[in-house]
Amino acid sequence: MSQMDQEEETSMALPPPTVEASCIAQRGMLTARTQRIVPEETAVAFTYNGSTHAVMMATPSNLEDFAVGFSFSEGVIQEASDIESLEVIITPLGVEAQIWLRKERAETYLGRKRTMAGPTGCGLCGVESLDAAMRPLPRVSQPAWQLTPQAIVAAMASLDPAQVLNEATHAVHAAGFWTETEGLVALREDVGRHNALDKLAGSLICSKRNAADGILLMTSRISIELIQKAALLDAPILAAVSAPTAAAIRLAEEA
Question: What is the pLDDT of residues 75-85, one digit of tens each?
Answer without folding.
Answer: 999 999 999 99
